[in-house]
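Hi W.,

Here's what went into the run:
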Amino acid sequence: MSYSVTEPSSRTKWFAGSMVILYAIITLLPLVWIIATGFKSPSDAIAYPPKVVFTPSLEGYVNLFTERTRVTPQMLEEAGEPTKWYDKIVHEQGAVISGKSRYGERFFNSVIIGFGSTLLCMILGTAAAYAFSRFRIPLKDDLLFFILSTRMMPPIAVSIPIFLMFRQLGLNDTHLGMILLYTAVNLSLSVWLLKGFIDEIPIEYEEAALIDGYTRFQAFYKVVLPQAATGIASTAIFCLIFAWNEYAFAVLLTSGTAQTAPPFIPTIIGVGGKDWPAVAAGATIFLVPVMVFTILLRKHLLRGITFGAVRK
Amino acid sequence: MAQIRIENVRKDFGSFTAVQSSSFTVEDGEFFMLLGPSGCGKTTTLRMMAGLELPTSGQIYIDGEEVGQKPASQRDIAFVFQMFALYPHMNVGKNISYPLISQGVPRAQVKKKVAEVAKILDIEDILNKPVGGLSGGDRQRVALGRAIVREPKAFFMDEPLGALDAEFREHMSEELRALHDRMGATTVYVTHDQLEAMQMGDKIVVMNHGVVEQFGVPQQIYDWPATKFVAQFIGSPSMNFLEFHGMLGSGAKQVTLSNTVFEIPTLLSGAKGGLSFGVRPEHVYLDDSSSYKGRVVAVEYLGTTQIITLDTANGSVKARVSSADVVAVGDTVGLHFDVRTVTIFEASSGKALISEANSGVLTHG
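Here's what came out:
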């Protein structure tokens, strides 16, 4: 029997495998904790020592989506036997549902603002990156540096000027305002990342398309875009994650109509005691879209984050 | 198919002039070579003809129509890139059909055309394959297929064999030439390989530093170079230059090199100062009766011939002689030149002096 020198031994593989699993457990633990807490009852959630085995309950989710009023047992009696399962859960707490909570709206705001800014960022970013990559632009390097320089301080450092600007422009607490803000913050990243990806696409492909009788825009659309799909997908994930998780500007600039989920979730704590299961439920649902988006684009992402590391 | 005419075309990139006032004509059906060292402007010239670059000034006529400032998509030409530029997200068949789709050719006709082209190039069995896994030769054929499927007015090729390995290059160059002969398509071909240009071309333009140095059929360019650059660039080993000082008037019939008089073709123009006596290695003979001597410094055996490098009073000379001649390094031998083939160059400008021998080639343009 002969062994290849480059093939790792089974012991090395076993060791590497167990390190990966260990790392996965460590990183997944907080996630598992949050998801589990969402299905605990409030008393289980704060039990000490923490409960690993518990009776699952949807109380957290019901509380997340509803406004409730505590009533006397007498009134509860008069209201009659609850018909819906969620009514029953609320009844057991000695309360009745008085209306919907705002979580749905906030979540929906996050979707609009997060995906809206990502889309806008991709459109502008791809166009700008293409131009920087392909055309002779006067002061190109200076412009690129200028674009990068907007990243050099934390965006929150300019929060007060932005707040004042937004107030003057009437963009405070609007979807448009937040979309524009997140796009502005993410655009430098997307221009730089996408320029790298487009630089890698040989210009001959477009020239071949031009010769074949296509216009410059058609060549861009039919030849460059499919080639740049990987770069666009991975850049989109980075942009979405930023916009989706952004907290500081959301607290500062939104309060009502355009408030996103991140600043809203902590406010749940204050509603009727420390309702940890509801907070955990809110956080769990909040995780889903980015997770789905990332999983859908994961094959591009892997290529995207190792971009430049491997020569083709 | 079409005639292509270039008139005073110039291209500046900022302060750098890539091509300056080039003029030449590619006749209908010609296999035309743009030859020169890298950076000489040959690719820029080709790209301007194709519409991938727009000339700073000058006119380009394809089939009589001025197209200088028109985009590539409106010129009805095909271009074969050195790296082939096959669309990586499409299979072979789609790649070939892509130029037809842009013209709105009906689907059934596209299919028929692609099949036809595939048959010509013998790539019918790979039509449904992705282009990623193809060999260099097959990529080349697909690129050619994409070019010929549309029956364009002209083909432009930018070092299409440059990416292939040596053995296969020879085979593809024959295939290319055969394809051209069958289709009779006007073809402009860029190369830096003088041998390739001579083998394949009907006509050659030699460029250097953005200037057209000479333009004509391969043999004329080889025999009667217009400049020292052309004389050096074409032929291997290149033309010998014996440097001397003197004054030659119009009508001069001989020159004196280190006290030995050599006859030359009668000059029709004169010059004085630094001059070069240009002679090809195959026109240098070893002749012990000659009073012009050289010392052998190297001998390269090449089978039927050998290249002998000699030191003379006027500089280094290479002679291509039969392998039967016995020569050893260190020998001093007499040299004799085939005077009918000599070209005299002005050393300062590098230009050939017009003589009775080369005036037919050099004065028509």
